[in-house]
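Quick one: structure for this chain?
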Amino acid sequence: MRFAGYAAIFNRIDKGGDIIRPGAFGDLADGQSLPLLWQHDPRQQIGRVDYVREDRRGLRVIGTISTATRAGRDAVAGLASGALGGLSFGYRVNRSTGREPRELLDLDVAEVSLVTFPMQPWARVHHVDGRAGFT
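Got it. Here's what it folds into:
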């Protein structure tokens, strides 16, 4: 199954008190390969991120979910039913400013995750393609 959405949205305070500013993802390498994880668990890679780019809205991603694992099948079922739709990403802060809110200005992205409760409520899957995933 393939999906598209935003793993981060710019200029909104998240549940942790951070704001991601435009340009924070500027160093993403062309064709950078990122794992797609289930609920940020590094032991549960459920697929791959096929496309990741910063655009005017935030961090846009397109991913493919494998059904080879139970977590992958759970993710496909959750997306198909509409019960799951949150996106998130794991990162390291290279540069930030301020406190409460902290402005995130430069980030290294390590992974993208399908999650039940995203840190940013607006970070969501917005399109699902029901064709079979890779195995």
